[in-house]
Amino acid sequence: MSEFVGRALARGEEGYEEARRAAVWNGRTAERYPDLVVQAEDERDLIAAVSLARERGWKIGVRSGGHSWAGNHVRDGGLLLDVSRLDAVEVDREAKTAVVGPGVRGNELLEALLPQGLFFPAGHCPGVALGGYLLQGGFGWNGRVHGPACMSVEAIDVVTADGGLVRADEQQNADLLWAARGAGPGFFGVVARFHLRLYEAPGHIANGVYLYPIEVLEEVFSWAREVGPRVAREMEMMVFIHRDAAGEPEIAVTGPVLAPSAERAAEALALLEACPARSRAKAAAPNVPVRMADLYAAAHASYPDGSRYAVDNMWTHASAAELLPGLRRIAETIPEAPSHMLWMNWGPSPERPDMAYSVEDDTYIAVYGVWEDPEDDAANVAWAAERMGEMAHLSSGIQLADENLAARPARFAAERNMARLDELRTRHDPEGIFHPWMGRV
Fold first, then answer.
1. How far apart are CA 32 and CA 262, in angstroms?
2. Per residue in 316-364, pLDDT tens?
3. Three-class SS of residue 270?
4. Each residue of 30-55: pLDDT tens digit?
5. d(CA 174, CA 180)
6. I want to staple 369 with a disulfide (CB 3.0 to 4.6 A). Which of 25, 139, 321, 380 is the partner?
7. CA 221, CA 225: separation in Å to the nearest integer?
8. Coil vs helix vs strand at 141
9. Rg (CA), the chain
10. Best CA proximity match to 434, nearest among 161, 170, 57
């Protein structure tokens, strides 16, 4: 179509199906088909896409990096707007700010920042683009120090449902900025640029890794729950259930630390040596200096490109005794590697500013089914939803990073914040140009 600088591919045209599938990183691409895929090249295409959708009565789904596990942006009918090519980065070292396009990958932003002594709490996995990541909250590296990454968004340039490009910050269009900090795939606009606050880079990065037999599950998780309030903010203490090289369930305790100094990192990592099951560890590496590239490589091994995924999650402040039956059930039924369960000691968190993002808790638990054969789809999809469904009575909500709303709708914002999001959506997108969250109309 001549009105676009980038490509516009209608359903049935050559290249359409390739573009549709490429818009979802998950190898299990949903069988949903938009009428048109627009691969935007610049903000003019964003404006043109919104105008076309208004003319034709279409709804819009927006894709930045495609890492939405559920492919929230790919819907039947309407327009799929791919903004992954808007990937410019401008850094002001002195002001500690950056202006980035929604298609910028978080790991690539860090590659540009670290040589300048700067840092941003980008996503844990390589390839995750900032657009969707920042809108859903941003659960990333050193997020326990800097907060969810959306807190570091100082302004956005956004194309609204009427086709206008506006700046939203604390002084103008502040309600749009409020919504952009946590609305995720239900945001009612297309962000052309994010204006970010940056931080000094950590002086030392290290990790500790301990592998335990599944027989000590109760000891390890009871201890992990008990020490949660004592975990240094610079450390992301995570406990995984997965299968080892022999295919047997195993527990891995890790503690990536992004600290000001090696001494501070060592102090944080010492906590992992206090696990009451420490003498039963199959292997241990208590304090290993690493680079950000190493942390990203480790994450990539757990989330390989091209695999099929089914994911679900929960926040909780439940006791270990309450959680253990569900954890045992996960261990007993976990699919083949690299499928896994993640436990992270996240809170207690400091008071947050007023923003759409409003649900978090002491402990984060998520399950990730990872497989290759489409014949295994049903079993893995059911595993993720059923395991979290069985523990839902202990959940205080979910986070949108690992949402499974189409299969299992769940609370992702405080009631007051959800009501305000609905009111703002009605005000800023009265014709419903932008898709709401799946599982919620």
1. 50
2. 999 999 999 999 999 999 999 999 999 999 999 999 999 999 999 999 9
3. helix
4. 999 999 999 999 999 999 999 999 99
5. 10
6. 380
7. 6
8. coil
9. 21
10. 161
197 Ramachandran zone, left/alpha/beta (phi>0; psi -120 to 50): beta
In this structure, are strands 238-243 and 340-345 parallel, antiparallel, or unpaired? Answer: antiparallel
Read out DSSP for 272-333? GGG-TTGGG-SEEEEEEE--HHHHHHHHHHHS-TT-EEEEEEEEE---HHHHHHHHHHHHHH
Residue 7 has pLDDT above 70, yes or no: yes
Inform me whether the pLDDT recorded for 82 exceeds 80: yes
State both tokens at 73: 């942006």
Integer Cα distance of 327 and 391 in angstroms? 9
Say what percent of the chain tops pLDDT 70.
99
Cα–Cα dist 220/320, whole Å: 10
Please, what are the domains in the chain? Answer: 7-82 (3.30.43.10), 89-201 (3.30.465.10), 204-402 (3.40.462.20)
| DSSP at 35 | S
Helix (H) or strand (E) holding 56: helix 43-56
| pTM beyond 0.90, yes or no | yes
Residue 16 has pLDDT above 80, yes or no: yes
Chain center to CA of 360: 13
